Amino acid sequence: GVGACGKLNTADEFVGAMNAQQFGENLNPNNAPICGMCVKITGPKGIVKVKIMDKCPICKFGDIDLSPAAFNVIGDEAQGRILISWEGC
User: Fold this and answer.
1) pTM greater than the 0.90 cutoff
2) 3-state SS string for the chain
3) What domains does the chain contain, in order, with CATH numbers?
């Protein structure tokens, strides 16, 4: 669907939603500086690079909600939540 960054994304794309605290406050979230940022995420099964295209209001600081395609690269989707580390790329 259409995320906070104003773009339409699908479950097959490598995209993520940043927690609200780190997404930042912007009068127009489509113009948030974090939109389109590349993030390299390390999880139990490997590493994936995603573009931040949405905001996750229920996520805790440090969390990133991932599309199914991206999540499946680094973890088992059946787990729902996994421990990750991430950095800009």
Assistant:
1) yes
2) CECCCCCECCCCCCEEEEEHHHHCCCCCHHHCCCCCCEEEEEECCEEEEEEEEEEECCCCCCCEEECHHHHHHHCCHHHCCCCCEEEEC
3) 15-88 (2.40.40.10)
